[in-house]
Specification:
Radius of gyration: 18 Å
Strand order of the largest sheet: 2-1-3-4
Shape: globular
Number of strands: 8
Distance between the termini: 62 Å
Low-confidence stretches: 249-262
């Protein structure tokens, strides 16, 4: 079959992604990406450290990020993203800003990080009170709480799993259970942390059940990167990225809903 009349494949717009060496959810990232955009991923070098604050610091050193960005420049991405929540909040808001600046210098393109994208998403949703779900240990979870508090966002509830490895193996059921535990009265939004934690399919379920916006690390990372391209992430029934989902009824009190269902 002669396909020359088609003029070749559609031009692709690129998003470069630097991810930690243990990142296992490439396919989940792709689920938020429209057809005209390609993801180009690279990993940070392996270090023999379990998930911890030490690991977060090691995989987010400026030279490590800059080298990751430089490996992507040959394919000319229009934006680069650092897909790691703990690595981008471990230095606080000033540390996150410095990371983006280092990445932009290395690639001469706009840069986003997962934790920076989190704050951007909360602002876009008008959320000032957030519940947190994390797979982390208590020390890493507390660092996330401090990060959002530094940005002026109140943490209304938190649930964590205490894991130090194999986070990508956590099933949706456990993610949903943790979200129900974290949700509290007066919560504006629930954030599920860690780019290695699967969340795509559980977001609509939790939004319908809890009646508040639910956002996740991978979701906000792709949403923010695609915003820099002037395009939108895809994914039905997710409040952050589906305009129709923002036009629903007013959100009832979370605890009152839970009490009424018992």
């Amino acid at each position: 079959m002669d396909v020359s009349f088609l003029g070749g494949p559609r031009p692709q717009r690129g998003v470069g992604v630097v991810a930690p060496f243990d990142f296992a959810l490439d396919r989940e990232l792709w689920r938020w990406i429209p057809d005209e955009v390609s993801l180009h991923l690279t990993r940070t070098p392996y270090v023999p450290v379990e998930v911890s604050l030490d690991l977060a610091r090691l995989v987010s050193e400026h030279e490590t990020l800059s080298e990751g960005v430089r490996t992507l420049i040959a394919i000319a991405p229009e934006v680069v993203a650092y897909a790691c929540t703990s690595g981008s909040f471990v230095g606080g808001t000033a540390g996150e800003r410095a990371m983006r600046e280092a990445m932009t210098r290395a690639g001469a393109v706009p840069s986003v990080t997962t934790s920076g994208a989190l704050l951007e998403a909360l602002a876009d949703l008008g959320a000032r009170r957030v519940a947190l779900v994390t797979p982390y240990t208590v020390s890493v979870t507390r660092a996330l709480e401090e990060y959002v508090a530094e940005a002026g966002v109140r943490v209304t509830g938190c649930a964590f799993m205490g894991l130090t490895r194999h986070i990508w193996k956590v099933p949706y059921r456990e993610v949903a259970d943790m979200a129900r535990r974290a949700a509290r009265r007066g919560t504006d939004c629930l954030f599920i942390s860690c780019t290695n934690l699967p969340t795509y399919d559980v977001i609509p379920q939790l939004e319908a059940e809890l009646r508040i916006p639910v956002i996740s690390a991978n979701q906000v990372t792709m949403w923010a990167a695609l915003r820099r391209l002037g395009t939108r992430a895809v994914g039905p029934y997710q409040t952050l990225i589906d305009p129709a989902a923002r036009n629903g009824p007013a959100l009832p009190d979370v605890e009152q809903q839970q009490e009424g269902s018992t």
